Amino acid sequence: MKRTFKYLLLFVLSIGTLTSCSEEDLEPTLAQSKSIETSINSLNDLEALLIGAMERMSTTAYYNRDVIILGEVFSDNATSNANSNRFVVEAQMDLNAQSAIASSLWSQIYGVIASANIIIGAEGIEGDEARINHIKGQAYAIRALAHFDLVKFYGQQHVNNGGLSASGVPYVTAFRDNDNLFPSRNTVQEVKDLAYADLERAQDLMSESLNDVSKEFITTYAAYAIEARIANYFGDHPRALNAAETVINSGNYTIASEGEFLSNFRSRGSANSIFEIANTPTDNAGINGLANIYQVGSYGDVVALPNLAAIYDEGDVRGVSPYDPTAGVQPSTVIGVSENGTLRNVGKYPRTAPFEDNVPVIRYEEIVLIYAEALMETGGADALTWLNRIPENRGGDTYDAATFENILLERRKELAFEGFRFHDLARAGMDIQSVDVIQLHNGVDYGAYNFALPIPTSEVDVNANIDQNTGY
């Protein structure tokens, strides 16, 4: 099953109907008048639903832009220059309950969860049982990742030292549950535990022999990588260690070398990719793509802060080099600096016309750094060796010790512009520093109300069981 044969799946949640259409034939392939329960009969139907879930993950409201940009402009990595007035309020960390991005992110992720729940709840499917289980396993993993993304942004765990007992998000486990149409918020602890349970179920159902080689679908090892990410965020280091080790011991992935690093962001299914969002010229996000929000042009609102550029060693491929697209000067590093001193991400998600670079969701380098952190936190040997494997392949200086500070620094260097920095600061209990005059906020102390997004007014107004987040 390849993403080049795509389906647009529209789930009309209010009436519970399903429409499916391909690029070649826009007529419904599943009768629109049928209910969800009676429309899904075959393995092909289930595969189409899975593609639909992936399509929902690939919108600009989720992994194709907003979830990544928010993780950067909420931090000390990047800000908005207001070139087209995009991400200005976000970079000020001054959202409110009516903010469009808070609403679109919430609804888009819950749309992904709805797609996953339809797959999980489908019964009586005709076809190969192992393949059916493999698809259902992917749906469980998607559901876990989506709820984790929600709780990172909307949970109260980092507000007023809320911790795991604080309000998280509703963990929705059924599509159109008539007994629970207005779910209340689970605690952060409950969200974490339910995500772990979904991943365990995914790992049980999936078969390594059925893993898609394109990296554009969840594989058995992607499910373990998601588990490692969640465990790392919550400080469950033994669990992070075991999950990361499973991915590493598979032998399926390698760290990109210094010479491969930039080109891998133009490639599909690279050896360092574990799971990525597919983009083709047909999908082209155009002006809404990541490249157009990062790079110089009519948009280009999100620029790197000098504080980020300063952390790189000379010769590090992730660092800074001259950039002048009008003169045909392209940087040899991730960050390009123009003559006026503006710093831009040019190396990650580089193509603008059309925007067709796959967006990495999980790279092997992240898992290596999770493994190094877990080794360090559990007293295991070789934490320093694993930490240094990243700068050794980037032209950067290596470290003398495996400390949390050094691991956090290397994560900042390696994962810049990919949406990790805000969540790393939050899980570390660190303030968001004001580091430059062009930064649009004046620093945010850890525990402040805006360490969480507002619950959208549209949700709070219709669901009396949802309480608004502190400060909104």
TrEMBL record:
This is RagB/SusD family nutrient uptake outer membrane protein. It is found in: Cell outer membrane. The lineage of its organism: Bacteria, Pseudomonadati, Bacteroidota, Flavobacteriia, Flavobacteriales. Residues 36-230 form the SusD-like N-terminal domain. One of its GO terms (cellular component) is cell outer membrane. Residues 1-22 form the signal peptide. InterPro entries: SusD-like_N, SusD_RagB_dom, TPR-like_helical_dom_sf. Keywords: Cell outer membrane, Membrane, Signal. Gene3D superfamilies: 1.25.40.390, 1.25.40.900, 2.20.20.130. Residues 356-472 form the RagB/SusD domain. It comes from Antarcticibacterium flavum. Belongs to the SusD family.
